[in-house]
Amino acid sequence: MVPSKNRLAVSCPTEEQNLIKELVALSTTEQIRKIRELPVSFEEKKHVRLVESSKGFFSKYVTGQYFALYLSFIQKCKEDVYLWVLLCCFLPLQSIRRFGYNIKSARQTLQLWQGIMKEIGGKFGSSVLNYFVLLKWLLLFNIFSFLVNFGFITIPLLVSDLSPNVSPNVSFRGLELLTGAGYFNHTIMYYGSYSNETFRGLVDYDMQLAYFFTISVYMVLCGLVLIFSMASSFKKNYALADQASNSAWQLLCSWDFSITNEKAVNQRKNNLRIQLMESLSEKAHRERQTTSEQLKQYGIYFGSWLLSTGLAVGCGASIFFLCQYEDEVRKSTYCCRNPEAETLLVPFVVSLMNMVIPLFFSLFNKFEQYSSQRKQIYALLFRNVLLRISILGVLCYYWMNMVPQKFTCWEPIVGQALYRLVIVDFIFLMLGSLFGEFLSNVIGTRIQPRLGVPEFDVARNVLEIIYAQTLAWIGIYFSPLLPVIQILKFFILFYLKKVSLTHNCQPPRRSGRAAQMKTIFIFLLFIPFFVGAVSIVAYTAWSLTPSEHCGPFRGLNSTFSVIGEWINDVDKVSSTEWVVWIYQNVIRSEVFYFLITLIILVIIYIFWQLIQGRKELIVLLRKQIANEGKDKSFLLDKLQDLQKSCPKVNKKQKKRTTVCFARFYSKFICLQFFCCCCCFCTLPNVLFFFSTQADAQLSAPLEISPTQTRWFRFYSLASSWRKRRDAAPVAFQSRRTFPPPAP
Question: Is 143 found in the same domain as 28?
């Protein structure tokens, strides 16, 4: 009977079967090595390994013919399975993935101003692009505010059958577009035209609750969006920022890859070269500065900040006295031809201050000569923020304390004042873009070419739109439809700034970290302005008494009292006791807010400690890297000194010793090889002879075992190595050197 291996060799003479036959006789390690060395693809290697592993089992029980049929059947089944997997799984997945890519590209194409954003980023860089991104972001805020207010406050009032509180018998004259008074005072534009009734229908709709919760939910959502945006931006740009690597950042990381315009690229290169030269010269100047020069510089800083603070405080005080003068003019209306036009005096002066005073701040920056652009921008930002906060603070103080005492329906008066501020600020922004930047371009290119084309002042423009958005946040309580004006304002301002930028301005000469500046802008939008607006709205709802004759909260002690009345109505329903318990024991409990504040402070402290620990770990790791570099340098120096101080050895004596040792060592190794070969070659022959005598199949051909083959090869290799060593003994000298013998 022919063994199974011979049957397989006869029935399957293909290359694959011969390869599998060779693999069966090898060990597992040799099989893996042999399969890895095959010059075929990974799929074919996996197939060979699968067949080889299955052959070890089936070759014992299946004849060669059936085994070959089995292999062909398995291969055909695999091809069918692959085809069905391709048709059923892969192609639908590809279609779904392609459909997702198409939706993503279509969504990016349909995004507002996507093409314009790419054009601006390619010509002027990321720092200028941040302004337009923030403008678009604030526009989306106002669109959401309008949809919420119009959907939950205005539409229920319009579809109700209730008659308006005041009959609109005033004609429209056109001046109302600037003043917001007159005809607009009797429309749904302001707080006073909204009812305090509950609309009866399929579902009762309480206007007081709708007004309160709509404003509250919108402000909370805006705050959450700002907090998460600021936190994510701070984590990316400031968590591991190293202030000491400013020069390395300028050299390696300051290039703006969003720029694609050739002219802008060349200008960017020139600006970067000038900036590096200025940084090096400023560093050398600081090193050469004496103590008297430093004291003089600090004196200039102190004087500039003193003047800036005085200007901001003076502007706030002048606005307060101007508001009082406006009240006196309003009382004596008989001496004025057009009393509505007199109301434009305060917003005109406020906008004029916001446009002129920052020019003095920029002049102060030129005298101060800050060492870095970042310090210069931060100083200018802080001064402008201080100016606008002082003006808004004085106005809000006047609105919250003076106006309620002088008017019985005071909320529409505040709404009209905010409307006028928004409109006049928009007019000044348009004039600044059309004439300010245009005249600067004409002067810099034709009259005084040394000045050059003006730069686009990112910091000043960003503060302008932040200030405009703050007015909208404050006015949302007094004028629910004020976001409509803000939407039109931002929409027109976007195209106006885009045209002015492309025709009148150039990119900033000194490059700043655009991502970090974006973080600063979001921080300024949140901390001084949004928090201030929320504080004013919360103070109005919590502490001030609403008007008794107009508005949805008429007759209440405060706006927040509507929640108490709603809880009293809910308490009458038996299944809502838990709502009353939460209101009485959680919302109105000072202990709850104290515990919440304490928990937040503990969490902040824990995270602050984690941040400090990670910063210390980073400092230690940097020191460790520096110390390892010093250690390597020290060891290299010692090694070089040791090599220089070693005694020189006689070359002839060294060569003679090396040759003698090499001959002795080679003879010893050859003797060991010969003994091992004799032992291991004789023993397998004896065992093989007795095993072949005891075998029952004497007719089987004599085969040499793999062990014999391996040792024969080893013996022949040793013999050839000995012959080559005898022929050229010098080539086999050892590389090791030994010291000369002692005399």
Answer: no
Going from the C-alpha of 184 to that of each of 113, 187, 323, the distances in angstroms are: 33, 5, 22
3-state DSSP assignment of residue 11: helix
Q: What angle do CA 90, 95, 100 make, to 5 degrees?
A: 125
pLDDT at 717 over 80: no
Cβ neighbors of 491 (< 8 A, separation 6 or more) are 139
Given pLDDT bands bounded at 50, 70 and 90, which one contains residue 445? confident
Taking alpha carbons only, the member of 320, 507, 344, 504 closest to residue 420 is: 344
Rounded distance, CA 497 to CA 504, Å?
Answer: 10
| Pair 358, 231 in one domain | yes
Q: CA-CA distance, 343 to 582, in Å (whole number)?
A: 47
CA–CA gap between residue 605 and residue 611 (Å, rounded): 10
d(CA 138, CA 493): 12
pLDDT given at position 422: 95
Check residues 575 and 184 and name the one with the higher pLDDT: 184
**What is the span of the domain harbouring residue 721?**
653-696+703-732
CA-based R_g, the chain, Å:
44
| Residue type at 329 in one-letter notation | V
Select from 57, 75, 107 the last residue of a domain: 107
Give domain status of residue 595, yes or no.
Answer: no
Residue 29, classed as helix, strand or coil, is helix
3-state DSSP call for residue 20? helix
Provide the 3-class DSSP secondary structure of residue 199: strand
Residue 579 in tokens: 């709502």
Sign of the CA dihedral running 369, 370, 374, 378:
negative
| Burial grade of 38 (CB within 10 A; 0-12, 13-18, 19 or more) | exposed
The reported pTM is 0.70
Count how many domains the chain has. Answer: 4
662 and 546: one domain?
no
* Apex 436 CA angle, 433 and 441, nearest 5: 100
Q: Which of 465, 601, 469, 458 is nearest to 518 (CA)?
A: 458
- Same domain? For 180 and 222 the reply is yes
Helix ranges, 458-513 (H): 458-475, 482-504
Residue 666 lies inside a defined structural domain of this protein: yes
Taking CA atoms, 332 is separated from 296, 329, 336, 337, 342, in Å, by: 54, 5, 8, 11, 11
Confidence of residue 484 (pLDDT cuts 50, 70, 90): very high
- Burial per residue of 366-401, b for 16 or more beta-carbon CB atoms within 10 angstroms, e otherwise: eebebeebbebbebbbebbbbbbbbbbebbbebbbe
Which tokens belong to 555?
Answer: 């007759």
CA angle 60, 61, 64 (to 5 degrees): 80
Together in a domain, 331 and 452: yes
